[in-house]
Prior knowledge:
Elements: E1 3-6, H1 10-21, E2 27-30, H2 33-42, E3 44-48, E4 53-55, E5 60-62, E6 72-77, H3 81-92, E7 95-103, H4 109-117, E8 124-127, E9 131-135, E10 138-141, E11 147-150, H5 158-167, E12 173-175, H6 179-200, H7 204-207, H8 211-230, H9 255-268, H10 274-281, H11 291-301, H12 306-319, H13 328-337
Parallel strand pairs: 1-2, 1-6, 2-5, 3-10, 6-7, 11-12
Antiparallel strand pairs: 3-4, 8-11, 9-10
Amino acid sequence: MRTLIVGIGALGGLIAARMQASGCSVWLATRNAESALALRRSGLRVTGVGGDVTVKVPDIAALDNYLAGCSFDLIVLATKAQDAIDTAPRLAGLLGAGGVLLPIQNGGVSQLLADRFGVERVLGGLSNLGATMPAPGVYEQRNAGHLLIGELGGRKSARAERVSRWLGRGVEVRVTPNLPGAIWSKLLLNCSVTTLGAIAGRTMRRYINLPEGRELFDRTYAETLLVARATGARPEPMIVDPVPPEWNGQITRGAEHDAWIGQILKAYGDLKPSMLQDFERGRRTEIDFINGYVVNLGRQLKIPTPLNEAIVETVQAITGRHLASGPVLLTRILAGAR
């Protein structure tokens, strides 16, 4: 498949390098010509889980250079969420007959793009690949994760299988007939584990032992799950069952719930939240497509989401340098949402 990977950060760079190393030619698009030139000179280097590889990248250019006379069967959107939304209209014009966009961001990006361009032009995806980028062109794979792709209409398809076989030459790819459910399963954890960790300025293992941390996690997760269920989605098990034990519309505390929290901690408890890294680097976060996405759907469905709303406001205040991350903000969110 003639493939363009847009965004050569940690995830896009990892996929591009693994594909090139497996002998599959892919085209790469960067934000500007300077970045493209630097990566053409340096190549891409991956270390960590999956083995070390170093590859050259002859087919790399600024995205604007692809906007005339180019045609692709597959465009993988590996940018930040807002960049994916902003560039998608231009990228749609680069698709050949039967070509598809494959966004792999967290949150509601896949569905938002499908609503805009139609499900026939968008294949949904998300990533469980863990990677960091210590320097441009240098990547460390942190886990044996995979890409999960599928139709947003919730069915199996030949094109999803074809994309899986192609990208699977470089990284592990799985196809699910319930991608909307999988997106919500990850979104539930993003809204609680990742965002709350960023606000608290610490990992989940450190904030969940605080009384306010545990309460806020439980209530945010429950609020988000109510919205997910109201959309008609069926969140499916990934690392943990997305539906807490004895769920009846709210969290039920007890030994089973503690064990469920323990499973989440085992998988995510020691990871530094990516949003916290955004705070530290002064970068725009993806909050509008994570907790903000839940807030917008809640309004449409007439489901109150006071905790998610307070979380969005807090993240925006931290981004604007009006607040600093810390556990005291967890108490502030709870007090404001009562």
